[in-house]
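We both want to read discrete structure tokens more fluently, so let's practise on a single case. Would you supply a protein for us yourself, any chain you care to pick? Would you write everything just below, so we can both look at the same thing?
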Amino acid sequence: MPAQDQLEIISPGGNIEFRDLDPRKGVANIGRHPDNDIIIDSPDVALFHAVLDYSQKPSHITLLNQDGETMLGGQPLSPNIPTELRNWDTIEIAGYTIVLLESMGAAVSPIPVEQPPAPVPASGAPPPQMLPRLPARPPDRSDDAIIIELSEREWTVNVEQTATCQVTITNGGDIVATFVVRVEGVDESWVDVSPPQVNLNEGERTPVTITITPPRLPSSRAGAHHLAIVVTSPNYPGRDSQRGATLVVNPYYEFAVGELSPKQQTVGGRLFGAVATGETVIHVANKGNSEAAFRLEAMDDARALSFEFEVPGEITNLARQAEMRLPPEETFAIPIHITPLSLPLVGLRKRSHPFTVSAAMLEGPLTPRSLLGQVKVRPLIGPWLLALFAILLGTLVILIFQPRITSPLRAHPQDDITDDDIVNPGETVELTWATWPPFTHVRIKAEWLESGVTTPILLESGAHQTVEHPPQDVIYTLMAENSLSDLLPFIKPKEDRLPIDVFPLEPRIIVFNPDAPEIVTGQDVILRWRVENADEVILSYHRSDGNTGEIILDQTEYESGMKQDTPPVPTTYELCVTSKYSEDRPCEERMVTVREPTPTPLPVPIIRSFSVMPREIYAGENVTITWEVEDATSVKIVRDDGTEEEKTALTGETIQTLTQLGVAKYRLIVVFDDGKGRPDGPSTRESDEQIITIREKPTPTPEPQKPVIEDFRVVPSTVVMGNSQSIQLVWSVTGDTTNIEISGPMLNAVSNLARTGSIPVSADTTTFFILTAYNGDLSSSQTVELTVQEPTPTPPPPTPTPTPAPEPVIEYFVAKGAEDPNDVTLLGSGSLTNSLRYEVVAGAKVIFSWSVHNAAQVTLFENSESLGEQPAEWELPPRVIIEAGQYRLVATNADGIERSAFIQITTRQPEPPPSPYNVDGPPLQTIPLTITWSYDADHLNDIIGFRVYRADAPYEHFDRMMDEAQLDNLKRNWGDPSPGCGQAYYVVAVYEVYVDGEKTPFETDPSPDRYYSWPCPTPTP
């Protein structure tokens, strides 16, 4: 069972998660919003779906929304009606299953498995037996003669740790008696009582120390052990006193793994469709004190084996890995079936596959245990068939891989070239062929018919060859051979011949045209051409003003191309082509006419919308300026104070902060400018004025608060009638006050008192006094009582014999949190006699209280400084604890005998508050750029303000842009006056903690989300 209440959450995919329920909070919120304690990310779940109240038993769940269907135990829940929820009850929400697991609930019975016999120690003694645990904490029983008090009733310990408490026994009878203390509910070997029995006179009391140490054995079961601490006396037969208590033992984790059985084995290969499978067994033992989950996993480095675990209780075997739960002191033997996946078909020996089986405990921090094993697999085909395969393979190699020309020698791009076909001089001839097998190498030679010379051709690739400008008739010969033809003389190289005739071609112009025969001054003309068989292309121009020239062309433009020109006057363009194979020089001319342009008027810009909102604001607030225009090249926002802001976007939004009281007037000027420097200037249009009123922000009037009475007491609180002892009323009030008054039945009202002070009073009978502090119509009151006792008449002794004063007794001296009980934690006994150790959150308020008997004087010391005399029973007003220290309470009787009690205090820093969230900004580019964020309202008093950080890409270094000096804990936005593109922002909250006695600011974690400004433009290459 869990050490505290938990929720088991099972997702629709089967994932299981456990969530502890904080007993200090008492409630858990369930829903889709990130502020919930239990977050269920499903569209069928409301933002705040349900509330679980576990502050008392039984727990209650209240459905807050009717969206979807929420079931409890198979029945639908009604909204806004609290419904009881008990241990193991199941809630179903949008496919999720939530189970309540209470710390005192019944344990789940494990799956019954075959258990090995319990081991017998070497001494021959039987193993320790686990005592039956009490189902609940036993009730208290009290007796007038046997009076007992417990210092503690609940402990949480690890095994081999000691829980300590004191039982204070008081002899309430009228005889001297012997008292015996025993502890029921746990093994007696865990318990030590010191002293085991005590003798007390009538009315005498004494403490007895009980220590409980659970051993590191599985019998020390994890969970709650309910105890009964019983005190009996043989002098009071049949009578006893009992107090119930609870010892929670934390789980410890330990397990053992046995060797694989067997570790090595040999299996056969695949034969007639059957697969041989091996089997080994692993033994896993839970040596911890609680049920634990184990994971078994098997793997081999080569991934050549298949593993299946045969787990008890599972219908089918589990592949690769398996999980199971094992009760303490239990051992499971898990068979593992091993099947080879990559079965050798041919081999000279067995194939060895080492593998590893690992066992890991999921709940504990223990290192997984790994065991090594080995499987050997026999091949199906052995060496006796390999010789036959070699002979067949050699024959096939000769038949298949002898050299062959599978495609004859061809010239491209004219695929139909055969004997006596022709090509033109200067043409590129590509020779292609195909041979087999791929490793065949070829040789090509060219036989020039006119010169009678034969030359080899250096090959560039194995499937084609380019020959440029064959100058004369030629015959190409291809020869194919490979390693087989070189080794085996009977295999001859293969040969193929291709003759080609070469004839010249004349150059000619196919296309030469401008894109327009007539253009306007300043326009461009594009000349395009395409020619054939040309070695050089010459493009020239002749302008009407007598200017001539040549346009230089690259060789890449000799076949086809285009050129752009801007003729200022009518121009004639001439294109000529030449060839080294011809004496002809063909030329063509084209005329382009140029005329003056007709100017066109500029378009008038259009203002679709222009607004400045809101129209009335307080000084320091923002206004949002939006616009939408058409047919414009720029937008200018003009204010009456002379400031201007120019924009290029036709639609946009910007934010400005106004601080000067009065009015602000805005106009929008829209401009269209083609950049040609027209004499009449650009085209513009102006909007109507937008008038904004800026008022002074009113100062909020704080709400009046009730005064706080920090201290009001009467010293002393008990007097004897007729005693002349001085009686003082002491008080202390904080906050705003209009009057402080003290009244009572025996005291006329005394008004207009100071915030702190004292006045003397007197009374001859028991009475009370009332302190009332007023702040206008608000008031606070507190009452104290003065007890006046009748004097006890005693006849004077004939001879007064001085008797020693009884020793002073400090019944208790303790501390507690004034505002939050969790601010102060009792750690146990201190290093000094009669001392307690506390851990306090630095800066928290602490109340010290005590009760002293038989003391004539009580003094309290803080470290070495005296805080003055104190009443015998008192609760000190709250004190702020900043750093570690020691408090000492000294009780002194009439004879000067002192007794002391100590409180030793250490401090810890408070838990840091949460981070801001929902960091966001405007979707468009604005100046200033306003960053906004959200913060949890429950933690506003824990922080003093915010800090904003900014970084440029790649976001490795963030600079602080603004801090808590300007951004207090009520701020939720900040305007960056100089933003840029591609920048990232995040926000942190700032809180203060005490360091070396001084308040020091610290930052929370950064906000989980960031805001990124508009992206930077991609640079043009």
In short: Residues 105-128, 414-420 have pLDDT under 50 and may be disordered. The CA atoms of residues 719 and 950 lie 70 Å apart. The domain at 708-790+805-908 is CATH 2.60.40.10 (Immunoglobulin-like). The helical segments are 386-401, 483-487.
